[in-house]
Amino acid sequence: MIPIFEPKFDGNEREYLMSCIDSGWISSQGKFIEQFESSFAAQSDMPIGVATSNCTTALHLALVSLGIGPGDEVICPDLTFIAPINMVALCGATPVLIDIESDSWAIDPDLIEARITEKTKALIVVHPFGHTADMTRIMEICDRRSIPVIEDVAEAPRALCNGQVAGSFGVMSCYSFFANKIMTTGEGGIVLTKDPDLETRLRTYRDHGMSREKRYFHIVAGYNYRMTNMQAAVGLAQLERLDDILMCRHAQDMQYRNRLAAGSSHLTYRPVLGYCQPVHWLATITLQNAEQRTALLTHLSDNGIDGRQMVFPVLETVPYVHGARPEDYPVATSISHRSLHLPSGTGLSEAQVDEICDLVLEWVTAHGE
Ligand SMILES: Cc1ncc(COP(=O)(O)O)c(C=O)c1O
Questions:
Q1: Which atom from ligand 1 is nearest to the alpha carbon of 128?
Q2: How much is the pLDDT for 202?
Q3: pLDDT of residue 195
Q4: What percent of the chain has pLDDT above 90?
Q5: Quick check: 128 and 79 in contact, CB under 8 A?
Q6: Tell me, what's the pLDDT at 326?
Q7: Mean pLDDT, to the nearest integer, of 276-292?
Q8: Domains along the chain?
Q9: What separation in Å is there between the alpha carbon of 264 and the centre of ligand 1?
Q10: 19 exposure class (CB count in 10 Å sphere: 0-12, 13-18, 19+)
Q11: What pLDDT sits at residue 359?
Q12: Which of 24, 144, 147, 181 is deepest in the core (most CB within 10 A)?
């Protein structure tokens, strides 16, 4: 089976990890944590990094640090991996779900203003599948209405929007280092910010609500959302190679794009908009209808290729479907139901990408309408 994604560890991962084991610094204290926090933040043009156990906890910390709670509304895109929406709900706030744009697949800036109310306390923007949202427009709206923006950059670290790196626009940005992400620490995440007051709140909530000055004295009800020194050790080694990883992934994207975007009128390879310099997370194609998408996934699986369907629109999922009207999110529905992801591991060879493209093109030529 060609897997959908495989992590690759060919830098200093083993050496750094062994130094944690040899020194006994295996929990959430140790030299790699600080190094990882400051190096990752610097790479994303942000001064402060607070490492976390994953991106979901990073998002929760960011929301709690802004004081989001019951009665508040947080605007979010309707097509995303569900973690940011769940974290809004976990705070007791209401996620206000907005449809996506048909080309960037990010939250549609044209629909935001109509959904802002006096209860709106934040907007979470997700940079989907390696592409950025239109941050210039989104920041103009949110700055004018004094709404803090949290960026979810789990799928697009180092992507650029009008030359500025994703994750450096909002008040905080959250990243994932799960095994299928562009760089990994196994499980892991980080929140970046420019604001030292938010940093204090993030660190306090991350560590059981304990005072930064007085040990074992708890000033708020907090959590244990810390990253371990071992995760940070792997993260630092991955970070040292991030430029190479991104370059290698870009070459893979070009190969897929050249073969699939030009190869058939029956499918669309994920577009790139003029304002954006994306990174290649997943190779995504959109077919003519949902039935074709499902049938092609089966065909890929029968031929040893691990394709994946795109996530469902949030408003179709059990916790959020109540009262939802499909006509309010037509773009998310259409893109979600017709799209699938092809393997995109860093270890994938050019010959394997060709093999996948041959299979896809052959199938859509035979089955396209
Ligand atoms: C956009 C987005 N946000 C958040 C997450 C959650 O990340 P984690 O698994 O690190 O909690 C993911 C994971 O796929 C994601 O794609």
A1: 1
A2: 98
A3: 98
A4: 95
A5: yes
A6: 86
A7: 97
A8: 13-240 (3.40.640.10), 242-367 (3.90.1150.10)
A9: 32
A10: middle
A11: 97
A12: 181
Contact 264, 368 (CB under 8 A): yes
Q: Whole-angstrom Cα distance, residue 21 to residue 229?
A: 10
Tell me what pLDDT residue 227 has.
98
DSSP state, residue 147: -
Cα-to-centroid distance, 112 and ligand 1 (Å): 23
Q: Which residues line ligand 1 (CB under 6 A)?
A: 54-56, 80-81, 83-84, 126, 152, 154-155, 176, 178, 189
Mean pLDDT of 46-73: 98
- Measured in Å, residue 56 CA sits from the centre of ligand 1 at 6
Ligand 1 pocket check: which of 126, 174, 178, 227 to mutate, most ligand atoms within 8 Å of Cβ? 178
**Rounded to whole angstroms, how far apart are CA atoms 263 and 156?**
26
Q: How far is CA 79 from the centre of its chain?
A: 12
Helices (H), 5-49: 13-23, 31-43
Residue 116's pLDDT is 98
Amino acid identity at 260: L
Residues 360-367, mean pLDDT to the nearest whole number: 94
